[in-house]
Amino acid sequence: MTEKVIIAGLELPNQDMDYAMQELAALVEANNMEAAETVIQKLDRPNAATYFGSGKVVELHELGESINVHTLVVNAELSPSQIRNLEKESKLDVIDRTGLILEIFANRAKSREAKLQVEIAKLNYQMPRLRTSSSQRLDQQSAGDAGGGYTNRGAGETKLEMNRRTIQQRINNLNHELKEMTTSSAVQRQKRDQTGLPSVALVGYTNAGKSTTMNGLVRLYGESDEKQVFEKNMLFATLDTSVRKLTFPDQKQLLLSDTVGFVSNLPHQLIKAFRSTLAEAAQADLLVQVVDVSDPHFREMIQTTNETLQEVGVTKAPMIVAFNKADVADVEFPTLEGNEEITYSAKDKKSLILLTNMIKQKVFTGYREATFLIPFDQGQIVDYLNQHTNVLKTDYKETGTEIVTELSSDDYQRFHKYLVEPVED
Ligand SMILES: Nc1nc2c(ncn2[C@@H]2O[C@H](COP(=O)(O)OP(=O)(O)OP(=O)(O)O)[C@@H](O)[C@H]2O)c(=O)[nH]1
Ligand SMILES: [Mg+2]
To answer: Where in this chain does the record put each Hflx-type G domain (predicted)?
Structure first.
């Protein structure tokens, strides 16, 4: 059964509260809970002790009693003492926005790498929130995670200190393990780089349609045994980066990766933890920012995505902005705006082909047509050209096989000595 909760936020000056609370409700849903009531308080600044003003706290308590709800989700990151005070006075379990997102990530993480990253983020969040009294939600959870080494039963300050040390030690160990893993994935990345294939990363706000776009492209150009990635109408469906190889009819190939989605105010602990995974995106030759153009707030989402990319250090890669879900946005599609923007639907084949052409134009630069004469005893070169380049014509001459083909400048250099009428660079 999904747990019913109350969601609450402060309307501070200059805030689009409807949007913020809608998004919080979607996050709550992504954590298998349901927002039964929404409470908003207008204030100039948060109350230092309880975040909400005292009248509102009483109201929250009464509301909880009357609808029999025991959990309050707050649309901000609260200080440890604010959570403590608010819990005490509202008699509700309090989850702040950061804690909520961390819980979602913890439930979704599948790969060892994602699990490690989420656990480090969670421990970093919990550390200042450890306390000696009461058995609160977070203490219970952390006890489970770390093998029960630090439940708090009011044993006093020394126990608390010890718990902090245990957690710090665990964070260090996990970081170490993660670093080793990242090193090996960096090695893998290097291996892929050596294949010389360009890489393209799908990035963007959560639920924009990155995975659907990836699956559509893989269906068209992927290897036949390539698995589909998980796509679903919920926030943070994807936590692990997946990479797929695409091969186009002209034999050109590239590596496409699907990445974790972003959300406004993504907890800094998570950004830090996911930095290494997202570094994958930083290595890409091209970013495709997928945007849900059917969402009235798509402009804010683009802004958040750009800011988050900056935060994780992805600043230099060229980017295409791909306005997705045009089929439900009442706009014409597929259409191009210059060679930097496309309006499309990830569920429409014509759209995907247009997007592909756009991507290809950006990443396959330096390709040229050339004619080679390959001696008959160099059959392996003929095989290579047939498999990896866009062969336009083959003729059998007395001295060898003549091949007219379109190929990358690397391959061009490689087979330079077999060129017929070599062209000066
Ligand atoms: N109508 C319509 N729905 C789409 C389109 N593209 C994706 N969707 C739906 O949007 C929802 C989210 O799609 P995903 O591909 O999982 O989104 P994502 O960007 O990978 O999301 P995260 O992994 O959570 O970051 C799914 O229900 C998709 O079926 C589209 O072009 N049109
Ligand atoms: Mg996804």
So the answer is: 198-367
